Amino acid sequence: MTVKQYYQDAYMKTFYTSIQEQQQDDSGWYVVLEQTAFYPTGGGQPHDTGTIQDKRIVNVEEVSGEIRHYIEEPFDDISGVVEGQIDWERRFDHIQQHAGQHILSAAFAEALQYETISFHLGKEFLTIDLNVSDMSESDAQEAEELANRIIREARAIETKWVTEEELSDYPLRKKPSVTGEIRLVIIPNFDYNGCGGTHPRSTSEVGAIKILDWEKHKGHIRLQFICGDRVLRQLNRKHGLLKELTSVLQSPEETMIPTAEQLIAKQKEQEKALEGLKEVLLTYEAEGLLGVQKDDYTLIQRAYSDRPIQELQKIAQHIISKREEAIVILVVHNDQKLQLVAAKGSLPTINLREVAQKVFPLINGKGGGKEGFVQGGGEAVMSKEELLEKLVNEL
Question: What pTM, to 2 d.p., does this model score?
Fold first, then answer.
């Protein structure tokens, strides 16, 4: 079996080994090495990347005890000694995040007796699911402060292989799911955890932990957080955003919230005033539409482009409120859609819903409404003028 050097030294960046075999499966070409420092996906931690000679590693998986290093293209010759290079920036990020998760989960358990039931290490942030249904700001702050105190104390992080029988000698927060020899990651007098991931030698190397947010998820609390260099990157990004906002709002950081609230309130007032003016304009537009006199009703028909269907509804409603003998048919072409509104005053006896239902299939569409007012839409498989003509013909 491949010797797992990442357990011997998590800080190994370069190593030399030989290729035992090269194969191909559904995921692509892979090689199996005599020994490897590349960590395979597992235990919530993503795989390492890097190179073997000139071949870039795109994935590392452990399949039935075999560590497969997936490469972009196969080797022409697998004999001799090869050099492996770990992407150290990615590895150290995973080291910081995974150790940070241990510390934060232990802090929640120590301070609040909140158990961590799952963990995920993503590209931007980490999540843990806590076995509680609700959590307060003060709870999060208490756990975060304890976690960062443990980091500042630069406590040692130890690893140890033990048997199942020896587990009872350690105050584990959670019983490991694996059997046989079990690897413990230990922060003495604080956290004892069965784990196969890579970790630093000291809590100080985690740098810092910052909780970002949390939400309810399937009866539990799912919490987002970041550790180490990700905290600095997040701070730099948010600081840059604040600087831009102070410039845009022309307000210092201390008064940014009331300034933004004033702008939002002013915008709402302007939107309300604008809506009032639009209503007036739509009223004038509706009253300006001329109709064609039929035997027992007046037909008003128009086809538009790029107008919200809500405006057509208001035009139709205004007309039939003023003219009880009117039938209004309005059609609009928006993007790749055809939409229609049909309405009638109190005098015409025709059922507009039945009329529209005969036309909707022609545009692969659907709609709804009542006998006197109907709306709907479909695909632009014909021009707006053609659709209007077919509606009028159905009358």
Answer: 0.73
